């Protein structure tokens, strides 16, 4: 036992010494440091996500209303919706029936009639839209105990008058707390698997790619060392100890560095750009034990990748290392094919599992697509070398032989570009998933702004409607919208009713008028686009039935008066449930947080990929400058440097770019067909391919330049 420990200690010292003396050691040290930090960052982000979901559910449960049919309930409760900018706002209308009416978490007491409690984020973002007076008199803020997240936008409005007894929208609440319903942001919360899956697909995969690239920096020397240890009788355990000793310090420091942002997020709330979401520090703090254990697991994962990427033949017949410098392992090609198979079969699994299967297949496919590229370029290298030998072209022959002998170099460089193109394309497709209605809402807003406003309200008498009209901005038109469903094979239609004066404002002819009666103008045209079969009717007085088939429309003479209309609607004795511009609910979806989360994960992943590409390219420059330097003496000119790097680096990388572009285009189109949403931006895809092509040319140019500079200083040595 003691002898084994002493041997292990010596091997660790060998690894530590190797980390300080291997060619390119500083580059690999910083590469492993960044890779370990990236992997730990993604792992800790996963921990924070799960902890945040748990905290949100706990706080939501503490404020959920317990609905009852009992007549002795002490509170009437009704939910509505609003928006500030394009961000949704939850509006809760309440009417306490007794002095002991229950209050939810975050509310110490109900305000006076006509007063409102707002969340701090709603106060901060809604000041420019008159949020402090929109629902009534501002009476204070909701504390963080009553918010699922500090960035939640919610308002508790105590109505000024007693609600009508026959209004079914008002519910009786017995208490708040366990067993209550979901409110606010929790009403449409996605499962925790959705953000975690997006995080690992867009950020985790690039972090793992960076780890593989960093582990293989200076791999030729390590492969020789591994073969030497095997020749001396060392087992895989001995090689593992040496490799771990070499990588342990930078990997451990990188993991500790990733804990710093987690520590900051555990003591103060952090706003995540560009989402605007505020991460609650209480949830992050509560997950510290899990975070510490997860950080240790991420460190072990990084060290496992380091060990796994430096292997030798196990049959004992050869001391040559079994790395990408000799061949492309068949199992990598099999996994790439398995990823493609998962993508293809995702359309045949149950609907709920389709995205999960598709995402898993995507991760596997992109992770191992570069191996397929390496196999193709290895055969291409053999052809280039034969062609160069027959034609007497030294640069082509040398570059082709290097490409054939070192496909791993192409794998590591192509990995960054392949995954980078895939991430950019997926970001664009996901952000484009607005659907036809959302695109139509954006177009409507561009044409008429917010001059047509819909109000979902309860029953309203003619006198109440006239009082509401008097509070609208001057020149506004008040109309009713009635939905007709004959219940037979006939099509449904919508009737717009209003006074003769209001209809004429919309260029709709009244009885006795001459001229077209269909109406004209931008507002009427947009109504037709949204309501379809549209008819107009002259009514003497505006009123709203209680059967739910009618709502109100307000047409303002100029844009920018939505806030004034909202204030008039939400301060009614029996406020409206929802007030929004025509198509506003779809317009809010186009500005929702989902595209921002995709941008956050995708941009972070792209940064990791850029770092991986930089590390890989720098490592190749270190290797190629030493290997190419003597060629200027053998060939008598320096043009050979450009020729070799072009055929060894630029041409294979251009081929990898073309393959990645084709696969990305197919993958994006397949995804759109699967979810039946979104569109492919060929401009974005072309820009990504062009950028990778430029990188391919740059890598070849810089490699030749580095070798030329080294040639000026090269002297023969006994190496």
Structure, described:
With 719 residues, the chain is of the alpha+beta class. The chain has helices at residues 2-21, 25-63, 120-126, 131-134, 193-215, 219-231, 236-265, 281-286, 288-308, 330-345, 351-391, 394-405, 407-431, 435-448, 462-470, 500-505, 522-531, 562-570, 584-590, 593-628, 631-635, 639-675, 682-713, and strands at residues 65-68, 75-84, 87-96, 115-118, 137-141, 154-158, 171-176, 270-272, 277-279, 452-456, 477-484, 493-498, 534-538, 550-555, 578-581. The longest helix is centred in the middle third of the chain and has 41 residues, at 351-391. Helix 11 packs antiparallel against helix 12 (394-405), helix 12 crosses helix 22 and helix 22 (639-675) runs antiparallel to helix 23. The strands form 3 sheets. It has a 7-stranded mixed beta sheet with strand order 1-7-2-3-6-4-5. It has a 6-stranded mixed beta sheet with strand order 13-12-11-14-10-15, with helices on both faces. It has a two-stranded antiparallel sheet with strand order 8-9. It contains 23 helices and 15 strands.
Question: What attributes does this structure have?
Answer:
alpha+beta; elongated; 15 strands; 719 residues; six-stranded mixed sheet; seven-stranded mixed sheet
What would you say about this model in short?
The chain has 719 residues and is an alpha+beta fold. The chain has 23 helices and 15 strands.
Radius of gyration: 33 Å
The shape, in one word, is: elongated
Largest sheet: 7 strands, mixed
- Could you tell me the mean pLDDT? 81
- In total, the number of strands is 15
Low-confidence stretches: 315-319, 321-325
Biggest β-sheet: strands ordered side by side in the sheet: 1-7-2-3-6-4-5
**How helical, in percent, are the residues?**
55-70%
- % residues in beta strands: 5-15%
Quote the distance from N terminus to C terminus: 39 Å
Helical/strand content category:
alpha+beta
Counted by DSSP, the helix tally is: 23
């Amino acid at each position: 036992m003691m002898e084994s420990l002493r041997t292990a200690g010596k091997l660790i010292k060998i690894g530590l010494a190797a980390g300080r003396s291997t060619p390119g050691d500083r580059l690999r040290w910083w590469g492993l440091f960044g890779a370990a930090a990236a992997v730990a960052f993604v792992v800790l982000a996963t921990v924070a996500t799960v902890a945040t979901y748990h905290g949100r559910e706990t706080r939501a449960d503490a404020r959920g209303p317990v609905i009852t049919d009992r007549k002795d309930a002490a509170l009437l409760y009704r939910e509505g919706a609003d928006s500030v900018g394009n961000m949704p706002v939850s509006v809760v209308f309440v009417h306490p029936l007794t002095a002991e009416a229950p209050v939810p978490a975050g509310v110490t007491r109900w305000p006076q009639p006509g007063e409102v409690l707002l969340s701090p984020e709603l106060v901060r973002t809604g000041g420019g839209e008159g949020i402090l007076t929109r629902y009534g008199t501002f009476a204070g803020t909701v504390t963080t105990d009553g918010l699922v997240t500090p960035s939640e936008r919610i308002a508790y409005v105590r109505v000024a008058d007693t609600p009508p007894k026959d209004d079914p929208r008002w519910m009786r609440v017995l208490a708040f707390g366990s067993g209550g319903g979901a409110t606010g942001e929790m009403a449409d919360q996605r499962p925790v698997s959705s953000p975690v899956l997006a995080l690992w697909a867009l950020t985790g995969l690039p972090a793992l790619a960076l780890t593989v690239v960093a582990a293989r920096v200076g791999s030729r020397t390590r492969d020789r060392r591994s073969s030497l240890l095997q020749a001396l009788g060392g087992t895989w355990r001995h090689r593992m100890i040496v490799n771990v000793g070499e990588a342990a310090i930078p990997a451990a420091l990188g993991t500790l560095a990733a804990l710093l942002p987690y520590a900051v997020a555990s003591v103060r709330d952090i706003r995540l750009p560009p989402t605007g979401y505020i991460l609650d520090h209480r949830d992050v703090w509560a997950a510290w034990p899990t975070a510490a254990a997860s950080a240790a697991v991420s460190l072990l994962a990084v060290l496992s990748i380091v060990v796994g990427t430096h292997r030798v033949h196990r049959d004992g017949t050869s001391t040559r290392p079994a790395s990408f410098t000799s061949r492309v392992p068949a199992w990598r090609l099999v996994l790439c094919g398995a990823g493609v198979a998962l993508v293809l079969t995702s359309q045949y699994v149950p609907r709920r599992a389709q995205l999960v299967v598709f995402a898993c297949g995507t991760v596997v496919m992109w992770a191992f697509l570069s191996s397929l590229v390496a196999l193709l370029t290895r055969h291409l290298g053999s052809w280039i070398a034969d062609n160069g030998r027959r034609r007497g072209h030294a640069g082509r022959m040398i570059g082709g032989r290097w490409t054939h002998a070192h496909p791993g170099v192409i794998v590591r460089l192509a990995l960054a570009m392949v995954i980078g193109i895939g991430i950019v394309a997926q970001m664009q497709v996901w952000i484009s998933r607005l659907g036809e209605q959302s695109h139509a809402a954006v177009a409507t807003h561009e044409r008429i702004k917010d001059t047509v406003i819909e109000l979902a309200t309860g029953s309203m008498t003619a006198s109440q409607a006239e009082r509401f009209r008097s509070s609208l901005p001057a020149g506004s038109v008040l109309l009713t919208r009635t939905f007709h469903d004959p219940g037979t094979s006939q099509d449904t239609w919508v009737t717009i009713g209003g006074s003769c004066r209001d209809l004429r404002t919309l260029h709709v002819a009244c009885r006795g008028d001459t001229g077209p009666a269909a109406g004209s103008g931008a507002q009427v045209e947009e109504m037709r686009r949204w309501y379809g079969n549209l008819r107009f009717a002259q009514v003497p007085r505006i009123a709203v039935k209680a059967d739910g088939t009618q709502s109100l429309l307000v047409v303002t003479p100029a844009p920018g008066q939505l806030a004034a209309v909202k204030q008039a609607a939400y301060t009614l004795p029996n406020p409206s449930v929802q007030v929004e511009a025509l198509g506003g609910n779809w317009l809010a979806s186009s500005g929702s947080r989902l595209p921002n989360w995709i941008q956050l994960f995708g941009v972070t992943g792209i940064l990791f990929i850029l770092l991986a590409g930089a590390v890989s390219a720098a490592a190749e420059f270190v290797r190629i400058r030493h290997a190419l330097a003597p060629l200027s003496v053998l060939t008598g000119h320096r043009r050979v440097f450009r020729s070799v790097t072009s055929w060894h680096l630029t041409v294979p990388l251009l081929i990898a770019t073309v393959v990645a572009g084709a696969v990305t285009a197919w993958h994006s189109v397949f995804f759109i067909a699967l979810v039946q949403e979104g569109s492919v931006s060929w401009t974005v895809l072309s820009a990504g391919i062009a950028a990778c092509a430029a990188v391919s040319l740059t890598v070849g140019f810089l490699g030749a330049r580095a070798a030329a500079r080294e040639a000026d200083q090269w002297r023969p040595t006994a190496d």
